[in-house]
Amino acid sequence: MDWLNLLALLWLIAGNTTLWVAYVNRTHALPLTCGTLHRLRRVHDVMIILVPLLLIVGLGLTGPKLLLGGSWAKLTPFWWAFVGVCLLGGMQLVFVTIRNILQRAPEQLIDKQSETIDIADKLGAKPVEPGKYYRLAMLPMNEQFEVEFNQKTFQLESLPAELDGLSILHISDWHFMGTLSQSYFKQVSDLLAQEPVDIVCFTGDLIDSMKCVEWIPETLGKLKGKYGNFFILGNHDWYQDPDVIREAVSKIGWVNVASETVELEIDHAILQIGGDETPWMGTSPEFSEIAHFRLLLCHTPDNLQSARDSHVDLMLSGHNHGGQVQLPLVGPVYSPSRFGTQYASGIFWEAPTLLHISRGLSGRHPLRYHCRPEVTRIVLKAVEVSPEKPHEPGVD
Ligand SMILES: [Fe+2]
């Protein structure tokens, strides 16, 4: 056995896998039907098994017999082209790993408090129903039930002094399907309802099975922001029946902001809230000049450039679930985005927009490793505050 060549072949296999994962991530960012996405994913499933077999058999054991003492000089032009493509994938893997290691929260994040609550412990059992993906939910060390209750304080130059201290509950991607039982979502909602908040925002992917629409009043219906609750839908709602889902959420008093904007006047400052469900539904909202602060609810973070063009101050997104499984050093792997894993979750400052991407609370697949579900209370701090509302000492 030529161990050095074995390592080289393993590297090529990793590069090939990286390329097919990139293909799945990019195609799943498109507004395609479930059936089409399923078929595209099958190509990925076949190729990440077939190509390694080809490399081991075609290069390692036959042809140039690299695993049996053969030489790279015997590779045909076809194999050199094949190896070249895999090497490109390997370089991409190195790039993604370095980017993940170097990633830091922007300076606008001035404080973060976090508490992890094991919902299964609180309920006395894992809140799972028999059915699709039941076994995934029951896997050992699965973090699906360990919910992170975060509080993140952002200081923004563009925040008017009148809005200093404004709190926003950002929740996303609850994916009611039936595998995770209603008690899981009720428990999280009950815990969230204990903490007063100014505004509640939901950024899409509520329903994965229409039979769960009836859960809405007992879950989202428990939450109440001082200035209101606002929502948009996501691609998974689009796969179901978005009109019925939208009506059910509106019925409990939430304001649908999809493709439009609403204005709130708070202490004479106008906060404008818009919603963007593109590329699956509607259009991007048009913000007006009268707004002192622009808040955008946008399911996918892929629309960041459009938000920046609209001078959005704070953009809230979900969709990518943090990848749900994050590998050591490499970070997230699967993220249905035009940018791959770059915006899987986290906080990003791309002037003039601060982007907060939630890892969401659930997903079609109830599986999480190194990527806990999250709910986040955002507190906004102004750089300059009015004399009536001085900064709390010690916070800045
Ligand atoms: Fe989602």
TrEMBL record:
Official protein name in the record: Putative metallophosphoesterase
InterPro entries found in the cross-reference section: Calcineurin-like_PHP, Metallo-depent_PP-like, Metallophosphoesterase_sf
GO biological process: lipid A biosynthetic process
UniProt KW keywords: Hydrolase, Membrane, Metal-binding, Transmembrane, Transmembrane helix
Coiled coil: none
Enzyme class: hydrolase
Xref: CDD domains: MPP_YkuE_C (cd07385)
Organism annotation: Thalassoglobus polymorphus
An annotated GO cellular component: membrane
Transmembrane segments: 6-25, 46-67, 79-102
Residues covered by the Calcineurin-like phosphoesterase domain: 167-321
Record-listed E.C. numbers: 3.1.-.-
